[in-house]
Amino acid sequence: MSWKVEVDGNTCIGSGMCAALMPEVFELEGATATVVEGEVSPDEMVLDAADSCPAMAIEVLEKGEVIGPRP
């Protein structure tokens, strides 16, 4: 099983929180974050990164269902 991770480049403000928490998944590219690999193994830290995004620009999906950020 894997999770799909997406960053909305139009919403991202480039705070770098995601890249600081999970540099193997996220990187800052200019003023916005991007995903290094679109599919990752399930990891609580990926959800933590989505939760910590101040712009709510990260979406984590499992089998097409949004699981992050968490409410």
Notes on the protein architecture:
The protein is α+β, with helices and mostly antiparallel strands and 71 residues long. The protein is 20% helix and 34% strand. It contains two helices and six strands, in the order E-H-E-E-E-H-E-E. The strands form two sheets. Strands 4-1-5-6 form a four-stranded antiparallel β-sheet. It has a two-stranded antiparallel sheet with strand order 2-3. The longest helix is centred in the C-terminal third of the chain and has 9 residues, at 44-52.
Please specify the SSE layout and strand pairing.
Layout: E1 3-7, H1 17-21, E2 26-29, E3 32-35, E4 39-40, H2 44-52, E5 58-62, E6 65-68
Antiparallel strand pairs: 1-4, 1-5, 2-3, 5-6
Any descriptors?
single chain; 71 residues; alpha+beta; 4-stranded antiparallel sheet; two-stranded antiparallel ribbon; 3Fe4S_ferredoxin; electron transport; transport; metal-binding; iron-sulfur
